[in-house]
């Protein structure tokens, strides 16, 4: 039987919670034997998702994070219960152009400003990303990440 982890956190919408939850997740993944680079990616995804809640969900006082690790994957759920979100606003945005053309506006290719880069970072690191209106209002971000293990973790992954 492999080990499964489910961690549920209810946090105040405060920037001080972001490094706290990132360290907590990193330590749990380290204990299970997740490889360093993979832990860094999962931590960055969580950081960006939490930062989005803190910056954009101004009408709420707290938010929830659910972290599930089972088998070969980690699923992060970040939920804010703010105002109902219009699902049409959740369409994917094309990435910014690279190279010299990045300074010129290209038809059909939006150039990213400071806001919105967090979701592009999450999309680039996660295997799957879902942004859906939460049943209680607000937004549910769900990111699925395939885990990479250290050699020492093999004992945890035996069935």
TrEMBL record:
What is the official name of this protein in its record? Answer: Histidine kinase/HSP90-like ATPase domain-containing protein
Signal as a keyword of this entry, yes or no, is no
Keyword list (alphabetical) reads:
Kinase, Serine/threonine-protein kinase, Transferase
Tell me which species this is from.
Answer: Dactylosporangium salmoneum
InterPro entries assigned to the protein according to its UniProt record, in alphabetical order: Anti-sigma-factor_SerPK, HATPase_C_sf, HATPase_dom
Task: Tell me the ranges covered by the Histidine kinase/HSP90-like ATPase domain, including all copies.
Answer: 12-131
Domain of life, per UniProt, equals: Bacteria
Output the lineage of the source organism.
Bacteria, Bacillati, Actinomycetota, Actinomycetes, Micromonosporales
